[in-house]
Specification:
This protein is α/β, with parallel strands linked by helices. Helix content is about 40%, strand content about 20%. It contains nine helices and twelve strands. The protein has helices at about 15-25, 35-45, 60-70, 85-95, 110-120, 160-170, 180-185, 195-210, 230-240, and strands at about 5-10, 30-35, 50-55, 80, 100-105, 135, 140, 145-150, 155, 175, 220, 225-230. The strands form three sheets. It has a five-stranded parallel β-sheet with strand order 2-1-3-4-5, sandwiched between helices. A four-stranded antiparallel β-sheet has the order 6-7-8-9, covered by helices on one side. A three-stranded antiparallel β-sheet has the order 10-12-11. Strand 6 and strand 7 form a beta hairpin. Helix 6 packs across helix 7 (about 180-185) and helix 6 (about 160-170) crosses helix 8 (about 195-210). The structure holds calcium ion (CA). Calcium ion binds near residues 11, 54 and 56.
């Protein structure tokens, strides 16, 4: 599957070919333009995921194109590629709203890495979705309705128990310090004892574990805090 469609705006054919080759090899679709006018037209018609922009072009300069694109396509990531290495040029590009600036000659692998980083940062990938369902083993937490199910049976949780459960499930498999649980669930301004956490964990276990005095999911990490085990199978393996 393609990682995205990159428009390469560059008038020097060998450089354009080099970039094209490296991007294609890294799973990107590539479209090319050799002038500013052509670039503007392609952006409107083909909706690329990112524009790689040279500064010195025959008809207009990259800064001008960058300014225009920022107005017409505010969310479109732009990476400037230029032979000019002066700091002022770089600052100007970033001031005009470019997302990154790469100086020629560049390492093609670095260029690809930077493009990926900009795409990640600007969230062009469709995988950015709000997670409102957390699942582990027999548990299913719907954060929209704030309801916890165990094998389709609804378990009634109090507010703090729900918040603890949510945090533990979000970071399942990772031991979380008691102090962090206290800060995140009760707030940093709460003047309570970390024992408050233990009390609530105990209550939570009574609701979620088959045998609360021998928990297999919500486990204690001695001298540290608590951890939600990834699944029943893993916990059995550790238990044996
Ligand atoms: Ca050029």
């Amino acid at each position: 599957m393609s990682e995205g469609k990159i428009l390469v705006v560059e008038d020097e054919i060998p450089i354009r070919m080099l970039i094209h080759f490296n991007l294609q090899r890294s799973n990107f679709d590539v479209i090319e333009a050799s002038t500013g006018k052509e670039a503007m037209k392609i952006v409107h018609e083909q909706n690329p995921s990112l524009v790689l922009l040279d500064i010195m072009l025959p008809d207009m300069n990259g800064f001008e194109i960058c300014t225009k694109l920022r107005v017409s396509h505010p969310g479109l990531p732009i990476v400037i590629v230029s032979a000019r290495s002066q700091d002022m040029e770089k600052i100007m590009a970033l001031e005009l709203g470019a997302d990154d600036y790469v100086v020629k000659p560049f390492n093609p692998l670095e260029l690809v890495a930077r493009i990926r980083s900009v795409l990640r940062r600007t969230n062009q990938s469709p995988q950015k979705q709000i997670v409102n369902k957390l699942q582990s083993g027999p548990y299913f937490l719907d954060t929209k309705t704030q309801q916890l199910y165990k094998r389709e049976k609804l378990l009634k949780l109090r507010v703090r128990e729900y918040q603890l459960m949510k945090l533990l499930l979000e970071r399942k498999g990772e031991p979380i310090p008691r102090n962090e649980l206290l800060d995140k669930v009760w707030g940093v301004n709460y003047f309570g004892d970390p024992k408050t956490v233990d009390v609530h964990i105990r209550r939570l276990r009574e609701k979620i574990e088959d045998d609360p005095s021998h928990p297999v999911f919500l486990i204690t990490v001695w001298g540290f805090g608590y951890c939600f085990r990834e699944s029943e199978i893993i916990s059995n393996e550790i238990e044996n």
